[in-house]
Design the sequence.
């Protein structure tokens, strides 16, 4: 039943690298969205660069499938072009949308709030950066289910302070761990790195949470049910059907925090 595990050994996190096919498909969607938004091919790079406050060279690389935007610029692009962020980034639509054209933005039930840059421990933090610990081991107490001990190897991930503030994540309450298993695919493939806001434990329907379920650490979508119960759902519902718990049964479930960020290596 365990869906979330942490490796006890230290390791090196490499920069996220997008395959040529992924970049090419993104460039095609970007061009399609620009045309739909009335931004003609001539001067397109300059227009996007000014709107997003990036260099024309950066936009040129996006348009020519040489690179992809960072997550914050991907979100700004989707808002600027009035298209679905999920479609622009992954080429997929939420249920009920038209796959043949860009859609208006819809509310996502999971968001990526940051990315991993190439850096080492000697690289100084910028004024807008904060380091979030990646715990090599998390032991849960048998009683309350709260985190009883955290062994930290020194490995940390960097986030923009402005991003954490925008999503109301206190830096001191943010931790990162590694998710395993296929129950949350395709959103969280096996091996994803997950950021948890331990200050956010109140259940909001449809949000993703890390929970201690009778001593097992899991990542699931949670929904409140009448009478104080809980509905626990996986993205991979074919292999992992939803679970329903009464108010009494739900006492075995302790919410450790809301998932506010994740990183997927392609």
Sequence:
């Amino acid at each position: 039943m365990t869906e979330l595990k942490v490796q006890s050994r230290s390791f090196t996190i490499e920069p996220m690298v997008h395959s040529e096919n992924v970049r090419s498909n993104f460039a095609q969607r970007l061009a399609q969205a620009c045309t739909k938004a009335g931004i003609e091919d001539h001067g397109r790079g300059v227009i996007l660069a000014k709107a997003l406050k990036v260099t024309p060279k950066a936009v040129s690389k996006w348009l020519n499938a040489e690179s992809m935007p960072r997550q914050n610029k991907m979100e700004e692009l989707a808002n600027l072009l009035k298209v679905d962020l999920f479609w622009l980034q992954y080429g997929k639509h939420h249920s009920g949308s038209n796959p043949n054209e860009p859609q208006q933005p819809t509310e996502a039930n999971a968001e990526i709030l940051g990315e991993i840059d190439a850096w080492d421990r000697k690289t100084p933090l910028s004024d807008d950066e904060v380091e979030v610990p990646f715990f090599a081991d998390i032991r849960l107490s048998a009683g309350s289910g709260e985190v009883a001990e955290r062994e930290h190897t020194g490995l940390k991930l960097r986030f923009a302070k402005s991003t954490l503030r925008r999503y109301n994540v206190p830096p001191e309450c943010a931790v990162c761990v590694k998710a395993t298993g296929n129950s949350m695919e395709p959103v969280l493939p096996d091996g994803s790195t997950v950021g948890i806001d331990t200050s956010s434990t109140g259940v909001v329907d449809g949000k993703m949470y890390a929970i201690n379920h009778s001593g097992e650490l899991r990542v699931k979508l949670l929904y409140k049910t009448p009478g104080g119960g809980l509905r626990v759902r996986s993205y991979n519902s074919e292999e992992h059907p939803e679970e329903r718990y009464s108010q009494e049964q739900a006492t075995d479930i302790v919410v450790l925090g809301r998932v506010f960020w994740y990183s997927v290596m392609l």
